[in-house]
Amino acid sequence: MSIKLAFGNRASGPYKTPMRVCIVAVDEEPSTFRGKDGTERKVLACAVSDGCKVVRVVCYASNLFGRLKVCQLPYL
Question: Which of 14, 24, 26, 75 could pair with 46 in a Cys bridge, judged by C-beta atoms 3.0 to 4.6 Å apart?
Fold first, then answer.
């Protein structure tokens, strides 16, 4: 699946079909927000590319923040 196809289908994540993308940028620090239930949560935004398009992605899984690293090109 490509980014173009995912956005063309108006899909939202998590996707059933994996996408091969490269992380091209990651925020320096996570952002904090309050959920509907009042709990404080952290999110980390990054930009990913499939070689044709670049989109913003938000990661809500704080245990994965350390794994989000900018890839070394050429990757795709």
Answer: 26
C-beta atoms surrounding 44 within 10 Å: 20
pLDDT per residue over 55-73, tens digit each?
999 999 999 999 999 987 6
Partners of 46 in beta bridges: 26, 57
Q: What is the pLDDT of residues 29-43, one digit of tens each?
A: 999 989 889 999 999
73 in any annotated domain? no
Q: Which residue has the tokens 């091969």?
A: 20
Count how many domains the chain has: 1
- 46 in a structural domain: yes
The answer to whether residues 50 and 19 touch, using CB atoms and an 8 Å cutoff, is yes
